[in-house]
Structure formats: C-alpha cells, structure tokens
Recover the amino acids of this structure.
C-alpha cells in the first residue's frame, strides 16, 4: 500500500502501514512489500529494502561485517566467514583455513 506515488503513476515513492505492519519500498523503489527478499536488509531510516554487500548472500545491515551468510561465487573469488572479525573475506588470515 503506497503512502505516496509518482505523479500519474501507480509506482510508490513511500509506503504506509497495512494491518499494523510498516511496508517497505523494495529494492527497485517502486513497490511496497512487507518483508525484504533474501540478499537484502531493512533500512529503517529510509523505510526500504537495500541489497546486501557484494560478498554477502544474506545480511542484517550494510558492509561485509553484517553478513549472516557469505556468497559462494563459482565464477569468481568465493567469500569465507572470518571467525575472528565475524565478516566475509576472500582470503583467510595466516594460520586460518
């Protein structure tokens, strides 16, 4: 449910509450959704879904240190979860594997 729309359009510019749930703009910024998709996190300040960092498959905020699951890229360098710094990295530190 849009709160505001583009002029002469059905594309949302902001979202409203529906059944007590704040709807969020999806990553295209045109449709209101009740939850973000996998690979996105909720930006509560701007009330929208935002795509996770390139190294994250799933996340709860921006940056590689907010990944909950790292991306396994088969065509390029895979990311690994660093247990010390709790972030996704492309290369393990010395002594780690």
């Amino acid at each position: 449910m849009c709160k505001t729309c583009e002029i002469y359009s059905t594309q949302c510019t902001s979202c409203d509450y529906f059944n007590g749930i704040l709807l969020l703009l999806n990553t295209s910024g045109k449709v209101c959704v009740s939850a973000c998709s996998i690979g996105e996190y909720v930006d509560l300040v701007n009330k929208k879904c935002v795509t996770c960092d390139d190294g994250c498959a799933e996340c709860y905020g921006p940056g590689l240190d907010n990944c909950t699951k790292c991306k396994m890229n088969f065509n390029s360098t895979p990311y690994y979860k660093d247990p010390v710094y709790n972030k996704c990295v492309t290369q393990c530190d010395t002594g780690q594997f």
In short: The radius of gyration is 17 Å. The chain has a mean pLDDT of 84.
